[in-house]
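Reading a protein record of the kind used here takes only a little practice. These numbers are not coordinates but entries in a learned vocabulary of local backbone shapes. Here is one such record, which you should read through line by line.
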Amino acid sequence: MTPAKGANDPACAAVTVRLPDAVDGQQRRWTDAQATAAWGDPSTVLLTCGVAEPGPSTLPCDTRAGVDWIIDDTDAPKYRFTTYGRTPALEVYLDYDAVSGSQVLTDIGTAVGQLPTTGAVCTERPAS
């Protein structure tokens, strides 16, 4: 994995030390890039902290465990979830054939909730 431009932000360290040992049944793996994490063998969930903060988007946005996420399914069944209204931003890239995005985001929610909020919130939610 490659660290994001903002990986050395202390808020990313606050997140990575709180990440769970497993998400949706996938065990955490060692990564050697700062402010990153991976779960599964082979990796089915990749996390990178310190990515660019997204601006307003037409992509769906959902809230899990108190964190707003922009959902990009362009590469389905691989999905990219990016925090919205958090600085620095954090991205999760996962394989929906192997894990549930909803469960993964719930499992990491407490850790990701450590990121400071900007005041921006999701206004659109995906259709149920």
Observations:
- Residues 10-112 form one domain.
- Residues 101-112 form the longest helix (12 residues).
